[in-house]
From TrEMBL:
Keyword Lipid metabolism belongs to the record: yes
GO biological process per UniProt: fatty acid biosynthetic process
Pfam families: Biotin_lipoyl
PANTHER family: OXALOACETATE DECARBOXYLASE ALPHA CHAIN (PTHR45266)
This protein's name: Biotin carboxyl carrier protein of acetyl-CoA carboxylase
GO cellular component assignments: acetyl-CoA carboxylase complex
Recorded metabolic or biological pathway in which this protein acts: Lipid metabolism; fatty acid biosynthesis
Domain Lipoyl-binding intervals: 77-153
Keywords: Biotin, Fatty acid biosynthesis, Fatty acid metabolism, Lipid biosynthesis, Lipid metabolism
Record lineage: Bacteria, Pseudomonadati, Pseudomonadota, Alphaproteobacteria, Acetobacterales
Described purpose of this protein according to its UniProt entry: This protein is a component of the acetyl coenzyme A carboxylase complex; first, biotin carboxylase catalyzes the carboxylation of the carrier protein and then the transcarboxylase transfers the carboxyl group to form malonyl-CoA.
GO molecular function: acetyl-CoA carboxylase activity
Length: 153
């Protein structure tokens, strides 16, 4: 156990990032040191969401198709899924226009947005040419791995 140094300020900073972005896990590694902070909000959501979801479904059957829509988008053949957990940005910087807009034709390899992960901005490129039918995230939105970001048809 000797030699183990814990940086409480770094852990607090990572916990604040989790709270601000809505992420569930973050890990930082430097040389031989690694800090991982995770939270598990699922039990709280399941307890609160289950009773609320049951009542509207019974009262309004039309709510069922709306609830199924997000799952359908992930299976859409033109869905562009997030390759990582991070924060989406639709512009290269706050004063610039967006990379793309809905209804615009895009070519394969064209940048659609950026995802910031661990202070690194990663370009999310169109996997195929087509028309950008829908952007499913806004600038500054936290995104999860596999989450649909856009639909290209």
């Amino acid at each position: 156990m000797s030699g183990l140094l814990v940086d409480a300020d770094a852990i607090r900073a990572l916990a604040e990032i989790l709270a601000e972005t809505g992420l569930t896990e973050i890990e930082v590694a430097e040389k031989d040191s690694r800090i991982r902070v995770a939270r598990q909000p699922a039990p709280v959501q399941a307890v609160a969401a289950a009773p609320v979801a049951v009542a509207p479904v019974a009262a309004a059957p039309a709510a069922t198709p709306a609830a199924a829509a997000p799952a359908d988008l992930s299976r859409h053949p033109g869905a562009v899924a997030s390759p990582m957990v991070g924060v989406a940005y639709l512009t290269p910087d706050p004063s610039s226009p967006p990379f793309v807009t809905e209804g615009q034709s895009v070519s394969a390899g064209q940048t659609l947005m950026l995802i910031e992960a661990m202070k690194t901005f990663n370009q999310i490129k169109a996997p195929k040419a087509g028309t950008l039918k829908s952007l499913l995230v806004g600038s500054g939105d936290p995104v999860e791995f596999g989450q649909p970001l856009a639909i290209i048809e």
